[in-house]
From TrEMBL:
Recorded GO CC terms: plasma membrane
Designated name of the protein: Elongation factor 4
Organism placement in taxonomy: Bacteria, Pseudomonadati, Pseudomonadota, Gammaproteobacteria, Pseudomonadales
GO BP of this protein: positive regulation of translation
Binding-site list for GTP: D17, H18, G19, K20, S21, T22, N134, K135, I136, D137
Superkingdom, natural source: Bacteria
Alphabetical keyword list: Cell membrane, Elongation factor, GTP-binding, Hydrolase, Membrane, Nucleotide-binding, Protein biosynthesis
Enzyme Commission (EC) number: 3.6.5.n1
Amino acid sequence: MSDLSLIRNFSIIAHIDHGKSTLADRFIQICGGLTEREMEAQVLDSMDLERERGITIKAHSVTLYYTAKDGKTYQLNFIDTPGHVDFHYEVSRSLAACEGALLVVDAAQGVEAQSVANCYTAIEQGLEVMPVLNKIDLPQAEPERVKAEIESVIGIDATDAVACSAKSGIGVEDVLEALIHTIPSPEGDIEAPLQALIIDSWFDNYLGVVSLVRVKHGRIKKGDKVLVKSTGKTHLVDSVGVFNPKHTETADLKAGEVGFIIAGIKDIHGAPVGDTLTLSTTPDVSSLPGFQKVKPQVYAGLFPVSSDDFEDFREALQKLTLNDAALQFEPESSEALGFGFRIGFLGMLHMEIIQERLEREYDLDLITTAPTVVFEVVTKGGEIIYVDNPSLLPDPSMIEEMREPIVRANILVPQDHLGSVITLCIEKRGVQHDMIFLGTQVQVVYDLPMNEVVLDFFDRLKSVSRGYASLDYSFDRFQPAKLVRLDVLINGEKVDALALIVHRDNAAFKGRQLVEKMKDLIPRQMFDVAIQAAIGGQIVARSTVKALRKNVLAKCYGGDASRKKKLLEKQKAGKKRMKQVGSVEIPQDAFLAVLKVDN
Ligand SMILES: Nc1nc2c(ncn2[C@@H]2O[C@H](COP(=O)(O)OP(=O)(O)OP(=O)(O)O)[C@@H](O)[C@H]2O)c(=O)[nH]1
């Protein structure tokens, strides 16, 4: 197919759980991409972990052929995008490949902050945004109210918004018809030299690096020699094709189309996302504007429970970065935990996912330290350094000024819950920037310390608003703040891996909460365990885990062999996620106690 007027490239943007993936599955079904049997729930979420958690992590593209009511067959290329705030950058990437976007809004829930943010990104990138009201099968659906909300909150015309139920299938064909008329076809010149944008690259164990590209001009086929503009390297194209949604090779990819290229590249750094491809015969083709590089927002130390696993751990991380360009790591050594890695993540969800993948796919037992954001420190010598590890904070006498990262947070909340959301923002040291009443919802804009936001703010926000408030935020600036390091001592020994950077005004309070929480999380041992919190050498809180009484240990001796074995196994299992620090065994939970103290 080479008639550009018969191609539509679009993304689906929506808040989590508003039904993107379900709608995508319906499209596939209507266009006959898969048989009923292959139509296993949520085909697009192909990673096991994605399916289990019911969230979309990686962007996927699907090419479908739809015969419309006008009798013509259209090529629909759609890209599914993740909805969670941690993966926001994937959204803008996907949008760069499209001329339009469907804004899917749950007709029972209404507009949420994430959809607003993504919608603005789409509009900024010049896309045609087409609103779709989903879940109209639900009795509590209020399509008219939600239409009005789309107009007042986002500011786009929603009078003709198509209503559908992705679950039952009602109205889904109308969505396809509407998108053919609303979303413009791509522009491009098939006869011009190849110019293609890499939207995504990932590592496949069998195929090597697979790159998803949008061809702007020209064409590419198997056997071509492709030039990666940023690296200057050329590679022989092994195959090109589309996902329909199965991996399907095609003769070529042409201007206006979206598909994959496999060219024997060994790791994703060889085909960087946002890069431009051309043919080796036309090296002068200009580069397309790429994407903003993503920077990790949260850092944590990860340490193998058994030091023998260190090399395996390194290998596993190297393999994961083949897949996940956002993941960054460097070796870290801790007096308490030995050798490990300091890893940068996009957010807490990203961190959980990586930790889970390391444990499941690579069979590693790891201890994670409390996550932290990056602080900007000006030394007395006038040097600016970035600290992503509290234990590496210079001595206070060397510090001229400390600055913490501030985010601009957009919160959408129904009026009824406004009060509790504001209370929460104040508790988190937020400064109000703006408040706009939009129908039944209120949009509040706060500047908040990132440190307070990344840890548990999202969960707290959900709970104080009974699930109704939604959040979108992005880094704004570094701002001077009174920050101190809070050290934790176990039986008098400072444990570097437990140190935190906190605000001075609530440092003592945080210290008390932390030692109390840790007392509950550290199991009783054969001796008393003293837990202390200190600021600059001064103890601000203390609690004690009392020793076990002797007769409890008596069980370990005598008795029959099988019982003894069971006991040993139990001990071993219990040891799994524990780390010996000095003479004290500390479980994983205690390292993350700070995440649990705020409530
Ligand atoms: N009643 C009803 N439920 C729906 C409809 N569409 C989707 N759902 C349900 O809503 C939930 C979320 O749907 P998904 O398609 O996974 O949502 P998503 O937006 O893709 O979520 P992420 O992939 O995490 O961003 C699922 O339990 C679906 O079964 C609908 O039209 N009606």
